Amino acid sequence: MIAVTSPQLYNHFDEHLDERLMKYFTENSQENACLSNHDATTNTKEQLESFIEGDCAPVIAVPGLMGTRLMVEIDCETLLMKHPEIMDACGWHTCTWSLFYSKPAPEYGIWIPSIFSPVSILRTTNNTCFGRLVGLHYDANKSEIHERYVEIEGLRVTWYGNTTGTYDIADGGFNAIGNILPLPVQISESKGFNGLATYLTKLGYQKGLSLFAVPYDFRLTYKANSVPYTLERTIRYAYELTGKKVVIVGHSLGNLNTLPTLLNMSQEDKDKMIALYVAAGAPYGGASKPTRFMLGGNTEFVFENFIGFQFYNQRSIMGASSSGFDLIPKDTFFRFKNEPWMIELIERVNLESEYPPDTKRGQEFWKNYKNTSDIPLSFFPTPAEKCFSGLTERPEACMTLVTDLTKTPTAQVKDMVYMSDYNSTVKLLKNHYTYNPFPETMSKFSDALAAKVEEYGNPNVPVVYIYGSHLSTELMSYWDYHPEKLTSKDIMAPPTKIYQGLGDSTVEVSYSLPIAIKWAWEHLHKVGKAKPIKIAEYCSIKNMKFEVWDTTQPNGIKEMNTTEYVGVPCDCQGTNSTGTACTHAGMLFDTKIIEYIANLVITKEVPDLKTTAAYGLSNKELEKLAMTLPHLRRPRNDQDVKSWFPRHNEENKHTISI
């Protein structure tokens, strides 16, 4: 999730971000290192074939909440006829040229809109244009979840690069998931996947051919958005083109869209096509912050109570969305309370509480347990060891820092306490959520639960699970009044007090780490087809590894076979600061994280070039593929990727059908 709408952030632009990034890349990487021939860049085909014969895996990027640039296309005649109130709210009165009246452009950026656009969210008044354009009709009677969310007549919202005006500048889809602000300068939180994409292209990757973006309408929950049909299709597409297993990099909400896709794939296909899944900042267990937004809006988006993302517009986008329900706290601690891995986690949490490592008693206790296997979660380092240095909000000792959420509420309104179990969450929504009528609220909540993310099925692929615990992060919000009395009148209702835990500034560790613990426990205890997982703590100095691959197969391909805790470097290490420059939102623009991921993609898999689809395609055909992005733009039901490359002669040639 990004938070780049606050006007305060416009004071933190850094025109030298890209300059510093490129300087770092130049000093720390070799040009075209992922190509077997570093000079093979004469044309698209030569470069792609050299990539196939090189050491690196194709990469697929899945962005988080608000991490996709969205456009709105306007059919003016239809909008004027069906919804004149929207035209009026946006200051449009005609669909033809007029000296006295304004008409809409064919399309606008809707997330994030330009400051000077009629759709702008940075207003001194409660301008409702944005909120009206971003809305959706909801029909709970439709049997298919994706059919329940219907665009307003005369409007179409889609990702940047998928409209008439942006089609030719999609840049492989990466213009939709990087540099989110509609300005020539950015902040680190708005860069998205831009830094990683820039670095990988320097190494020889080609957008749309070996480096893939999966933008989507983040308003919609998994079953309603495009990811269920674009992500698996992109995995198959990358594999067919290159003959190589892919590395998937998900950020934030992108992981809640990635996991169900992996669970829906056969084990045979995953073993054949996926080398690694990097889950960065994954809020699988939800987060406290979205609950605050849904109950009362976000005052951080309004500067000095005067200019900014006014509450009507906040309410409109959240009310239209179902993805917010993906992010509210899940019932993890209740659902799994009797499972062996959760019992072990709670035992560890209780020990950390009973024997704090910053006390003499605690130090003696943990010292006695060092290097023993009878401690709960023995694969996780103990507080006798040092995981952090120079970050002032995080204790130096290695700790889970998890809070038992069967004992701690996620929200409280006056004397009404709400836990994270399902029934309590329903009561919370019924009593205090006003953005939709309660029946519609429950239907959208059910739509979100349909993906079954809260079951935390093991993806059964190697995982690097990057989470943070070094920053103060919301754990619970408290209102000493009823927020619904204000929000029902379109007035923001901030909590009276926010209680903090530790996390990555957005996802508190109690919502992120338990899922990694579950998957690790399953692999260590040989449950099903669970694969190894590296529990990778952001900014930790303990067991730092730039190489997650443990062994090499006889054919030279790297392999991960050990589950363990590892430290992940960050730009904040050694700064003697709070570490607020290394946050959830800006994680993927951290140069150390970018370099870390770039090391992970070196899998050393080199297929037989002649068996790949790329080999049988001409340079012109490959250029067309990179422009048309069939893995993203083809219809929902067109999933037979192999049919896009039918063989047309005995010489193993391919022809393309776009």
Give short descriptive properties of this protein.
658 residues, alpha/beta, 4-stranded mixed beta sheet, 31% helix
User: What structural class do the secondary elements suggest?
Assistant: alpha/beta
Question: Strand-residue fraction?
Answer: 5-15%
Instruction: Give the overall pLDDT as a whole number.
Output: 92
Q: How many angstroms separate the termini? A: 33 Å
Helix content: 25-40%
> Would you count the extended β strands for me?
21
Strand arrangement in the largest pleated sheet: 8-1-9-10-15-18-21
Rounded radius of gyration (Å): 25 Å
Would you kindly provide a brief summary of this structure?
This protein is of the alpha/beta class. Helix content is 31%, strand content 14%.
Could you please describe the fold and organization of this structure?
This protein is α/β, with parallel strands linked by helices. 31% of the residues lie in helices and 14% in strands. The strands form 6 sheets. It has a 7-stranded parallel beta sheet with strand order 8-1-9-10-15-18-21, sandwiched between helices. Helix 6 (194-202) packs across helix 20 (591-600). The model is unreliable at 1-13 and 648-656 (pLDDT under 50).
What topology emerges from the helices and strands here?
Blueprint: H1 17-28, H2 44-52, E1 59-62, E2 70-74, H3 76-82, H4 84-89, E3 107-111, E4 122-123, H5 129-133, E5 136-138, E6 149-151, E7 155-159, H6 194-202, E8 211-213, H7 227-242, E9 246-251, H8 253-264, H9 267-273, E10 274-280, H10 288-296, E11 302-303, E12 307-309, H11 311-320, H12 323-327, H13 332-335, H14 340-354, H15 360-369, E13 411-413, E14 416-418, H16 422-432, H17 438-449, E15 463-467, E16 471-479, H18 484-487, E17 497-503, H19 509-524, E18 533-538, E19 551-552, E20 558-559, E21 564-568, H20 591-600, H21 619-628, H22 630-633
Parallel strand pairs: 1-8, 1-9, 9-10, 10-15, 13-16, 15-18, 18-21
Antiparallel strand pairs: 2-3, 2-7, 4-12, 5-6, 11-12, 13-14, 16-17, 19-20
